[in-house]
Amino acid sequence: MATTVNDAVPRLNDGFTFYFASWYKKSPYFARTVEAGCTSWDLYNHMLIPTLYDDDVEEYWHLLEHVTLWDVAVERQVEITGPDAARFTQLMTPRDLAACCKYVVLCAPDGGIVNDPILLRLGQDRFWLSLADSDALLYALGVQAFAGLDVQIREPDVSPLQVQGPKSRPLVRKLFGDAIADLRYYRCVETELDGIPLVVSRTGWTGEVGYELYLRDAAQGTELWDRVMGAGEEFQIRATAPSDQRRMEAGIFNYGNDMDVTNNPFEVTGLERLVELDNDHRIIARAALERIAAEGVRRKLVGVRLGGEPLTMWLEDFWPVTTGGREVGGLTSAAYSPRLKINMGYAWLPVELTAYGTTVLAMSPDGPLAAEVVPLPFWDRAKEIPKA
Predict the structure, then answer these.
(1) What are phi and psi of 290, to 5 degrees?
(2) How many angstroms separate the CA atoms of 357 and 375, rounded?
(3) 73, 22, 70, 17: which is closest to 44 by C-alpha?
(4) 3-class DSSP state for residue 356?
(5) Domains of the chain, with CATH numbers?
(6) Exposed end of the chain (fewer CB within 10 Å): N or C?
(7) Pick from 332, 324, 333: nearest CA to 359
(8) Is a pLDDT exceeding 80 seen at residue 10?
(9) Which DSSP helix (H) or strand (E) runs through 140?
(10) Are 207 and 387 in contact, with CB atoms under 8 Å apart?
(11) Residue 164 contacts residue 206 (beta carbons within 8 Å)
């Protein structure tokens, strides 16, 4: 991770250099994140995303106790409009799109997961796909070329901020009033803040109470940031990076890390629910998903509780998982939960090793760690907190 932005050539902790090149997009909030003390960035959807300001454990506790502001402009949007927008969008996902906002999977013809965006339905014929890290816009354009449907597809001028934590609701109430503060979970509305055009949704990457502010004019990024930070002072608002610990507690996956296009929704614990085929919708992946549902899968991504001392690092490489001296899978994510006082992980395992209580070994760089298969999510299994 980069440790400075001086001279536009940050130095990495291990001596390598990370270039802030012109082809790496900067968000409309980039200058403010630097001023707020951001010390490292990553690349996500071809854009720089803040990954650390101070101490990740301090940031975790601030998220749980107060309110945090995240620059997540990297959540690029695919906008689908036109007379056939609903039919076209439905082509790409097995989830029924009748409702307003949903977490969905976009699937390739073989059932592989192309992306797992939040879908916002802003009108009868207007959809946004708020993307994880993959070139889903190119996939949508490819589908458009052969779909024979009347749609327009583009990346609009939209740059989200996330406002997350238990004090996010009073902050949003102060900024926007009761109607938006009291939005139901996974609902959205178009609005403005003193002329700043926005879409606000009751969503987030935390499992906490939270909102996403989708700025619709990048030129007003600094103004929006300042308005939110100013209004949040009384609630102890703090700019932080997305919390890997909290997203794992909530059983949230990271596309490209935990799963990718080589995996299908039936292989990922919890994503099976996003496959809704009890209808007559035309869906690109329908035949493949119906076949997989009938045949079953050979492997699953599951939650594991890891032994050993509290983890103090992110995985730089996937860890092999073994049993009986034989490699059987891999660990994709791991983090220590300061609240639960356990090491959490996600691991790909053969289905015969995915029963709760099954123990395998995760081969960390410092030696093997016991990994016990456990239910997901690790915390708040009914998701009562974000629904509150």
Answers:
(1) -65, -40
(2) 9
(3) 73
(4) coil
(5) 6-75+158-248 (3.30.1360.120), 249-384 (3.30.1360.120)
(6) C
(7) 324
(8) no
(9) helix 136-147
(10) no
(11) yes
